[in-house]
Design a protein that fits this description.
The structure holds 2 protein chains of 2 kinds. By secondary structure, chain A is mainly alpha-helical. Helices cover 58% and strands 9% of the residues of chain A. Classes of the chains: A mainly alpha, B mainly alpha. Chains A and B meet through α1, β1 and β2 of A and α13, α19, α20, β2 and β5 of B.
């Protein structure tokens, strides 16, 4: 029973985190860059 | 009733065998999403082109050897875009099925756990978003290579390393890092007393032979890129260590990112939302769980070895026996040499009931479980890989000094890619943990299967759908095909220079996704392009990693105004890039007198104006523009391809060159 409850709790957290992440990411559309040349990257 | 009974018995075996691959295919479809639509997927280093030419004359460092040649050959039979999609999907299938094959249990849930973890993680996502599909071929084949190395035998290892061999140098280096420790530390059975007892000598001989065999296979399969790499005069800029050092991609710092299998240097390779506290936290928690499982597995191996192991002499059981002898963890399908299988009564000698349970289940299942003969070797490989990655981040002086001493150490500058064996170790460790959750029975089995497949996806959900649009598909505009046909139909020799002088482009027709200049792959002749890499580093501005190819440096000097003109920004270079390239080009300076002039002349394509301009070099700006055409001709350049709308700028500078194609966004000039 304890395992089931723990699994439910973990599952709920994971589902919540994943949902929030997906909603946050899906809502804004990234604006296409308008520069013809690009650097290799940055951070 | 009998056929029905047989079906019931056979179905689980077939399911166990096919499920990981099918799961990998499903995850691949989910991850690639829009990239599976019509057209090519173009992003960063992933450049596929229609009708790719088969070019064997490799100039510069052979980064895309033999991957480009293999793609060109496959594209003779299938459209190139189909080849690309098959390769990308194949990476997921290969990775998932391979990780599952390493799990020391035949049960479906742990095997699917490893499959899902290994086919859906930050490492694979980031490298895919950076377009490094060739490296990912090696990543996908890594479990199979580990499996083969732990079993022993060159003929087993060679086919397992084929994906990495196709991938090229990065894929093979990651594979070598993993395979050699596994071969050296694979389980050798038999009682051993003293460091130089006969049995111990036999063990060392056996291990040495295994390492040499593996190394020989690796070297042979590396020859396609190794030979040109040793012959090239390309140089490696030590500045690349700072540019490509691992960086934190979340709130837990660089080490936390690396342990979570992320930490790539380029923020544009992150999946969206990856740096959020919530996602990073659950990923790190999963990492801790997976590592605990792997430690449990390795600990079990060590305890069994300390107990004296069992089974026969090294190699006595044939290649398959060596692995199974590691403690009876192998499944019956993986070879069933009798002496190497521990009886169920011995299960109490395992240090953990979880491992013991997996061992028993693995023996009785139809799954292809391996046993843990690879555990120690994989642990060493994961540790060394993590150290290499950390070196670039925490002690960059070491790799910088190594590269300065010998450019052959250049591949160590992008240290994060060596985290691949850690990903495999975590995948297997996750399977160990999932196995602990499982019970027998249809209802209880469904839960761990669901957990096994869902958790890795849920901790990185935004990898789905092409990382929410970061991956897509696009068709090349017709004018690219026209230009390709014109150049490739021309029998006259001579290189093609691609302008503007910068490696990466963002085409509107590709959704603005950044991609390496497609001209680098499009033509059946040498293409000269700016392989200088510009990387932004926090607090240090932009780091320019100098071009590797000396010819590229000479052309850069010409385009930027030549050695005598001082260091200007090359034509069309991004405005934010400093002018150092011109200065470096200036140092490389001298243009070989007459080099290539004969070829250009033989082509009959050098217009009179160009010759006049060349003859009058060193005069006014207009005259110098004319001399650029002549200088390029002397370097053996026959074509200049200009992409973008600022054609007039180049027409002015390449006075005397003949326009042979002028389209909406492309201008092709013949010199």
């Amino acid at each position: 029973m304890l395992k089931v409850l723990a699994a439910l709790a973990v599952g709920a957290v994971l589902a919540g985190v994943a949902s929030v992440a997906v909603v946050n990411v899906a809502s804004p559309t990234p604006e296409p860059p308008n520069k013809p040349l690009y650097n290799y990257g940055d951070r | 009733m009998r056929p029905h009974f047989r079906l019931v018995r056979l179905a689980p075996a077939w399911f166990a065998r096919l499920a990981p691959g099918a799961l990998g295919l499903g995850l691949g479809v989910l991850a690639l999403g829009p990239a599976l639509g019509p057209g090519f997927t173009l992003r960063y280093d992933m450049v596929f082109v229609p009708d790719p030419p088969l070019r064997l004359d490799v100039a510069g460092f052979p980064r895309a050897v033999p991957s480009d040649q293999v793609v060109a050959l496959l594209s003779e039979a299938l459209p190139a875009e189909v080849v690309q999609k098959l390769i990308l999907l194949g990476i997921f299938v290969l990775a998932a099925s391979g990780a599952a094959a390493l799990v020391p249990s035949g049960r479906t849930a742990p095997r699917l756990a490893a499959a899902a973890f290994y086919a859906w993680n930050a490492y694979l996502a980031q490298r895919l978003l950076l377009g490094q599909w060739a490296l990912l071929l090696g990543f996908a084949g890594l479990p199979w290579a580990v499996r083969a190395a732990s079993r022993g035998g060159a003929w087993r290892l060679a086919p397992a390393l084929l994906p990495a061999a196709v991938g090229g140098f990065q894929a093979m280096l990651v594979s070598a890092l993993t395979v050699l420790p596994v071969a050296a530390l694979r389980t050798v059975e038999g009682p051993v007393e003293g460091w130089w007892a006969p049995a111990r000598r036999s063990e060392w001989t056996f291990r040495g032979r295994a390492v040499l065999t593996s190394a020989a296979v690796i070297v042979v399969l590396s020859l396609p890129w190794l030979v040109p790499a040793l012959r090239t005069n390309a140089v490696t800029d030590p500045a690349g260590v700072a540019a490509f050092a691992p960086r934190a991609d979340g709130p837990f710092g660089t080490l936390g990112s690396l342990l979570s299998l992320g930490g790539i240097w380029n923020s544009h390779a992150d999946v969206p939302g990856q740096d959020s506290w919530a996602l990073a936290s659950v990923r790190l928690a999963l990492t801790a769980i997976a590592l605990a499982g792997f430690v449990l597995l390795v600990h079990g191996t060590r305890v069994r070895r300390a107990a004296g192991g069992h089974a026969g002499e090294p190699g006595a059981g044939g290649g398959s026996g060596g692995v199974g002898g590691s403690g009876g963890l192998r499944g019956s399908a993986g070879g069933s040499s009798g002496p190497l299988v521990r009886s169920s009564g011995q299960a109490n000698r395992f240090p953990s009931p979880v491992i013991a349970q997996m061992a028993v289940q693995g023996r009785g299942s139809g799954g292809g479980s391996e046993g843990d003969g690879y555990g120690l070797g994989l642990a060493v490989a994961a540790g060394v890989g993590l150290l290499i990655a950390c070196a670039g981040a925490f002690v960059p002086g070491v790799p910088r000094a190594m590269i300065g001493w010998w450019p052959g150490f250049g591949p160590f500058r992008d240290g994060q890619l060596y985290v691949a064996p850690l990903a495999l170790a975590e995948a297997v460790g996750f399977a160990v943990v999932v196995s602990a959750l499982g019970r027998r029975g249809p209802v209880a089995t469904a839960v761990p299967v669901l957990v096994a497949t869902a958790v890795p996806v849920l901790v990185l959900p935004t990898f789905a759908l092409g990382a929410f649009g970061r991956l897509g598909s696009a068709d090349y505009p017709d004018e690219w095909r026209r230009v390709q046909a014109i150049v490739n139909d021309d029998p006259h020799p001579g290189a093609l220079v691609s302008l503007p002088w910068g490696a990466y482009r963002a085409f509107p027709w590709n959704g603005g996704r950044v991609v390496l200049d497609p001209a680098t792959k499009l033509f059946a002749r040498r293409v000269i392009w700016d392989d200088t890499l510009v990387v932004g580093v926090p607090g240090r501005g932009r780091i320019r990693v100098a071009a590797e190819d000396p010819l590229t440096r000479r052309i850069a000097a010409l385009i930027s105004g030549g050695a005598g003109a001082g260091g200007g920004v090359p034509v069309g270079a991004p405005a934010e890039v400093d002018g150092g390239g011109g200065g470096r080009g200036g140092r490389e300076g001298g243009v070989p007198a007459g080099a290539g002039a004969g070829e250009a002349g033989a082509g009959g394509g050098v217009p009179a104006g160009a010759r006049t301009g060349a003859a009058e070099a060193g005069g006014t700006g207009t005259e110098r523009a004319g001399s650029l055409t002549g200088d390029l001709a002397r370097e053996g350049v026959r074509y200049v391809l200009v992409e973008g709308s600022n054609e007039n700028q180049f027409l002015f500078r390449l006075r005397g060159a003949t326009p042979v194609w002028r389209g909406e966004s492309l201008l092709l000039l013949r010199i």
